[in-house]
Amino acid sequence: MSKATGELSPAAAAARRIAAERPRLEFGGAVWDYAPAPEATDHVRLARRYDLFVGGEFVAPRSKRRFATINPATEEPLAEVAEAGAADVDAAVEAAERAYRRHWSRLSGAERGKYLYRIARLIQEKARELAIVETMDGGKPIKEARDVDVPLAAAHFFYHAGWADKLEYAFPGRAGRTPRPLGVCGQIIPWNFPLLMAAWKLAPALACGNTVVLKPAETTPLTALKLAEILREAELPPGVVNIVTGAGETGAHLVNHPKVAKIAFTGSTEVGKLIQRAVAGSGKRLTLELGGKAANIVFADAAIDQAVEGIVNGIYFNQGHVCCAGSRLLVEEGIADELLAKLAWRIEQLRVGDPLDKNTDVGAINSKQQLDKIRELTQSGVDEGATLHQSSCPLPAKGYFFPPTFFSGVAQSHRIAREEIFGPVLAVMTFRTPDEAIEKANNLAYGLSAGVWTDKGAKIFAMTRRLRAGVVWANTFNKFDPTSPFGGYKESGFGREGGVHGLEAYVELG
Ligand code: NAI
Ligand code: MG
């Protein structure tokens, strides 16, 4: 929808026309207009109903339960998806266990690598369709799905394909000894980077010789199911990857399954702690990638315009649904007024609206629940006395949207300075000395990422050494690469994903 006038864009108008001609979709007692893929009928094939992917086949859920996944930009359903119950998770784990024992664990690394290369190539071939589905199901701007999520997903498979036959070189001091795989891995992923998180999880697990049961998030299951189609096309042996859709209950069945050797989880700190308790004493391996509240630190000697771009990218990228988002801005006092004036101007330039429009900068908030959380925390900022700055952009009438927002005059005790908002809301604080910046940056229980902006190389090194964060960016932000390990300190979780370090989570070294 055109944000200024409320008129439909040509693509949205076409989508509406097509929708009127489509059959209606029924589930859960409700009857909905079937929402087709806007501007995408040529590129996107969405089934009206998706089954579970178990043992290389799409199978109906034994639970007989299904749920709708909606497009958060239109609030209309896209497809009906299976909700895996305990028996379904059990079948998936059994399939993974069989595939591990009979096939995957016996293949040479070079053979495993060939499958991973094939998957990577197929992701590239289907990049356009995957990007559109990702944007429709989750609300992120198409330019991000197209330029970040999908190419990086392919890159993770390419990168790990290269490791599959070189694992004996991955761990120094162990030359010539091939690390052993763990067995069946249960992987639970969030809704902010659905396809990319599937790739982060699957690629290293498979490269190391494990088999997998993957559970996508309930609001964004579609690209994982599209990936299942790709896995079939790549002729990955049945059962090597199984995909069970569902919500927290499905995830809990997977966590508690006795035949699962390892759990890899990305999501909220709250659920991460639940999972940690659930696997305690079970002998299961565990990696957790949880929340964050990163400090993005700007010194007076930084290139200010560049820093403003980095701040914008740090917090408004993917609507701020980013665990490593630069959600706390620490700015050196002397430049605070100038920088905030520039930031206020800059957020007015951001286009908020139809995620399928390639000029959109900020798309839809992923769910009603998340929108409510963002609104509630934003209100707390106002109530606690911080000063609200919000883009005046009009928001589409339908769908879940929130304008780019920042708060100045924030105290460290404010909720907006302490809690993960996971939305396009930035808390700005000031500092006078590097010590004060470090003290403020490190004073939370989170420790996932941080940023430093300065033109002094020595200052970058001095700061990064003292920041308790798994990833520290210097004069940039939110840059990702499969060769680089990613993960947190403290309540942001443990274990690393990506790079050579990420392999360790999927092998037995003893
Ligand atoms: P969540 O942690 O509930 O969801 C993440 C995944 O865990 C989903 O696949 C979900 O189905 C699954 N899950 C939920 N309960 C489970 C359980 N008991 N056992 C096993 N799996 C379970 O996150 P939610 O509720 O969607 O978002 C709430 C907040 O969490 C957000 O506002 C944000 O602050 C944070 N979050 C952080 C993420 C990150 O990347 N660090 C990703 C998603 C959310
Ligand atoms: Mg959805």
List the helices and strands and how they pair.
Blueprint: H1 10-21, E1 24-27, E2 30-33, E3 49-50, E4 52-54, E5 57-59, E6 66-71, E7 76-82, H2 86-102, H3 109-125, H4 127-138, H5 142-163, E8 180-181, E9 184-188, H6 194-207, E10 211-215, H7 222-233, E11 241-243, H8 248-256, E12 262-266, H9 269-279, E13 285-289, E14 295-298, H10 304-316, E15 328-332, H11 336-349, H12 368-383, E16 387-390, E17 405-408, H13 415-418, E18 425-431, H14 434-441, E19 446-447, E20 449-453, H15 457-466, E21 471-474, E22 489-490, E23 493-494, H16 499-503, E24 507-508
Parallel strand pairs: 3-7, 9-10, 9-12, 10-11, 12-13, 14-15, 14-20, 15-18, 17-18, 20-21
Antiparallel strand pairs: 1-2, 4-5, 6-7, 8-24, 13-23, 16-17, 19-22
Helix pairs in contact: 3-5, 4-5, 5-6, 10-11
